[in-house]
Every structure is written in structure tokens, then in C-alpha cells.
Amino acid sequence: MVFHLLENAIIANHKATAKKIFVKLEKEKAAYRFTIADEGGGIELDQHFYVTKPFFQLQENLEHNGTGLSLVEYICKHNYVSFKIENRENGLLVSM
């Protein structure tokens, strides 16, 4: 799951001039929060709903089939882990 999220951040940053990716693990009460943030521009609001749906791709990419984020969401859900994707000022923040 972590590898896929990092790979998505790298792909998003490839198109941007700023190429920073922030990875953070912090303890919150009885749980841990893992976040990955990039500066790749984020996801357009009309596509935000679809990014965790199977076979949806933000761009045509023959190397991938669009199942990565749907699998991450599925694994989190079935292991009682919250999963959140949100735009931030200049990129995307993904947290588990």
C-alpha cells in the first residue's frame, strides 16, 4: 500500500516543477497516522469521487490498470483503517 501511494506521488510530481514529497508517521492516542503529501497539483474536484473506483485512471497509462487506490481503500476498510485523500494548497495529501 505504501509503495503504491509513494509511486503515485512520484508520478504526480513528475509533471510539476516542485518535486517534494513529504512522508510522516505520527502517534495519535492509541493509533498511528501515516501521511504522504506531494506537490503535484492535486486532483480535480470532478474526478475526486472516482479515484478510488476500480479501473479509473487520471491519465492514460498502459503500465497501470487503475486498481491501485481502490485496492488501498479496500485493504484499509477491511482492516478498520481510515483512508483519506484530499487536495491541499499545491498538491495532494493521502492519510491512513
Tell me what the structure shows:
This protein is an alpha+beta fold and 96 residues long. It has 3 helices and 4 strands. Strand 1 (21-28) and strand 2 (31-38) form a beta hairpin. The longest helix is centred in the first third of the chain and has 13 residues, at 2-14. The model has no long low-confidence stretch (mean pLDDT 87).
Which key phrases capture this entry?
single chain, 96 residues, four-stranded antiparallel β-sheet, 29% helix
Strand order of the largest sheet: 1-2-4-3
Task: Work out the helicity level.
Answer: 25-40%
Rg value: 13 Å
Outline type: globular
Number of strands: 4
H/I helix tally: 3
Q: Which structural class fits the helix and strand makeup?
A: alpha+beta
Instruction: Give a short account of the largest sheet.
Output: 4 strands, antiparallel
